[in-house]
Amino acid sequence: MVAGPVAPGSGWPGDPADPGTPVARNPAEVRELAAGAASLAELTARQSVCRACPRLVRWREEVAAVRRRSFRDEQYWGRPVPGWGERAPAVLIVGLAPAAHGGNRTGRIFTGDRSGDFLFASLYRSGLASQPASVSAADGQRLIGARMVATVRCAPPGNKPTPGERDACVPWLSAELRMVAASLRVIVCLGGFAWQALWQVLEGAGYAPPRPRPAFAHGAEARLRSAAGADMLLIGCYHPSQQNTFTGRVTENMLDAIFARARGYAVGPVDLTGSRRSISSTSPAASSSLILRSRTKRDDRKSS
Ligand code: SF4
User: Fold this and answer.
1) CATH pick for 84-267 out of 3.40.47.10, 3.40.50.920, 3.40.50.300, 3.40.470.10
2) Is 56 in the pocket of ligand 1 (CB under 6 A)?
3) How many whole angstroms separate alpha carbon 80 and alpha carbon 129?
4) How far is the CA of 36 from the centre of ligand 1 (A)?
């Protein structure tokens, strides 16, 4: 068992990088490498080896070396957590940052922590994930018609990145958004930090945001139009943090309502018992995978 971060290309499930992947060592290099990535695969590889924020690099690697007592026999990922999910998503889920012993341990966003337990259970009920739990990068979990990203890709101390770290990481998200914009219909923004950070990203990706910008709230919505003229819906959602779920600020029903709304907007009204009523235009890849999930739920019921 190796203490400390995983070496790129050393066999970690889903590791997008290899030893030759270029490393950004300052914000200017983040901008350059994000803008120069030729594909989503190349972009996520570059994200996953970034070292542009000294404080966050120190923290993520220290956590990976020391480890929590309950995970002391596990290898930690200890690197930036790249975007994950479908390459042509209809729904993009944007969070704050990986948790020190969650995404920073498993290498996959919202995987292996309590927030993720709550979130993935809801995504599964809503037809956006293939399994109700997400525990490791090798668990076979899949997002369906969806993709998941963090605003800041490294675990920050106290879950609080600085404004400078947020700004340094923005080009990774901007580039990812541009690459999936053609299929995208909905962005679900988990928490006020991601909501605030996203406006700059959206403008950089060619979306015209409303003026004035709507304030963050659970269920807040804003409609945006891409440079190509496509409509996109932005939905605010309270972050499913342990504090929010324990205190009842976020409940299962509240989360389910957000993802039902997102899924319904992305593919048109959908009967989750299996009879799809109407499908609006969206990318064939995204809509077909969402429809497939709906059929799978129906088939599950038939066989039970
Ligand atoms: S937070 Fe973003 S920009 Fe900073 S080191 Fe991590 S991946 Fe790089």
Assistant:
1) 3.40.470.10
2) yes
3) 23
4) 17
